[in-house]
Amino acid sequence: MVSNLPPGQFPDSALPFRLPLVLLRVTSSASSSPAIIRVRGLSKRYGNHTVVNDVGFTLAAGETLVLLGPSGCGKTTLLKMLNRLIEPDAGTVEVNGSDIRTQKPELLRRGIGYVIQQVGLLPHYTVAENVAVVPTLLGHNPADISTRTTALLTRLHLPAERYAGQYPSQLSGGQQQRVGLARALAADPPIILMDEPFGALDPITRAAIRRDFRELEELRNKTIVLVTHDVAEAFELADRIALLDGGVVQQLGTPRELLFRPANDFVRRFFEAERLSLQMQVLQLSDLLIFIKSTNHQQSLASALPSLPASATIREALEALTRPSETPDPQLFITQDSVNAQPVTLSQLMLAFGEAVQSIKTTRVEE
Ligand SMILES: Nc1ncnc2c1ncn2[C@@H]1O[C@H](COP(=O)(O)OP(=O)(O)OP(=O)(O)O)[C@@H](O)[C@H]1O
Q1: pLDDT of residue 307 exceeding 60
Q2: How far is the CA of 100 from the centre of ligand 1 (A)?
Q3: 90 alpha carbon, distance to own chain's centre
Q4: Are the CB atoms for 150 and 132 separated by under 8 Å?
């Protein structure tokens, strides 16, 4: 019965069983959609050095998998084996059920978007010509290419009337990166591979492009494999993370699973320095509802206070609650549906956050 409810909504009768629900959410994993990428036993050696060692995973359509790990752990090598830029020594990659070795590498790559840190725009092509490269190679209708190019550039904050005719050297690094993203999306491939796509950008541009990335309609249904060594970026963008060390996947799971159920000491240590901030990014208001004391409130107050959905993260709630305010203990409403709204003050939220984290830890120890 409880599992049929949307996240964050619990019937009163479920009260005594609320604690295990927090745990259940930690263990919930990948989607059950059909696999679009299936990797088995993938290995690559250079001389005596095994840089990717027996890696396997299955990716559902629409999923974003982040390959995370320290420098030199094999992320780029693994990514490049997915579009045959590097051939493995062992193992297989299947895309939509067929072994990629049965396709010519250049044909395979036209069907898989690829975004890299160095962007790799063609310097003597205009922005519009760069975006149009793959659809042109695929023989798409020129009018359709032009319409899509204009739409993509506009969506990525590069209005075509201003930027379409410019050359890459006339653009900033962030603008070039946006053109790189538009180019990867131009032929509407179902799969996009991204290698440190935001790595060369300053923190503000990086945050802005990451926000666009999350909100971009064109990316919504794509299956994405993204390489990064930035933990916060991985947690922000991933459905699942494959954390690598020495070419071996140390753990593959949701950000919650890696944070709250680390498979080994390497995984635990990897997130240690940013643990608090990651917990605030991973836990949602819905996880805290059971720890917030219900108070009677006037419905009329709801419209006067800021509100956030129960799916908002603790970080988003803290951002909302710590804006300059006249009130010593500001509050907001957590909206669960059109009828139910739970008021919470900043101090209640902090207390509930502490209790939620503690309860997850406690439940683990008791297992
Ligand atoms: N062509 C090559 N010849 C020999 N060694 C290589 C080659 N390409 C990569 N390596 C080695 O393989 C290991 C993994 O490299 P890879 O670029 O996949 O790591 P990475 O995790 O992407 O690192 P980074 O985050 O620094 O980009 C490194 O030790 C690297 O030196």
Answers
A1: yes
A2: 22
A3: 29
A4: no
Output the residue whose Cα is nearest ligand 1's atom 5. 46
Q: How far apart are CA 128 and CA 161, in angstroms?
A: 10
* Ligand 1 center–CA 101 separation, angstroms: 22
- Angle, vertex CA 255, rays to CA 253 and CA 258, nearest 5: 65
Q: Which atom of ligand 1 is nearest to the CA of 74?
A: 18
| Ligand 1 atom closest to residue 69's alpha carbon, by position in its atom list | 21
Q: Residues lining ligand 1, CB < 6 A?
A: 46, 51, 69, 71-77, 229
Probe ligand 1: pick from 45, 73, 87, max atoms within 8 Å of CB?
Answer: 73
**Residue among 46, 89, 194, 248 to mutate when testing ligand 1 (max atoms within 8 A of CB):** 46
Q: Is the dihedral of CA 44, 79, 68, 91 positive or negative?
A: negative
Compute, in angstroms, the gap from residue 78 CA to the centroid of ligand 1. 10
Domains of the chain with bracketed CATH: 35-282 (3.40.50.300), 285-363 (no CATH)
The band of 13, judged by pLDDT with boundaries at 50, 70 and 90, is: very low
What CA dihedral angle connects 268, 271, 274 and 275, to 10 degrees?
Answer: -40
pLDDT in tens, 86-140: 999 999 999 988 999 998 888 888 889 888 877 788 999 999 999 998 889 888 8
Pairing mode of beta strands 98-99, 90-95? antiparallel
- Number of other CB atoms surrounding residue 51 within 10 Å: 19
Q: Which of 8, 4, 27, 2 is nearest to 291 (CA)?
A: 8
Amino acid found at 155 = R
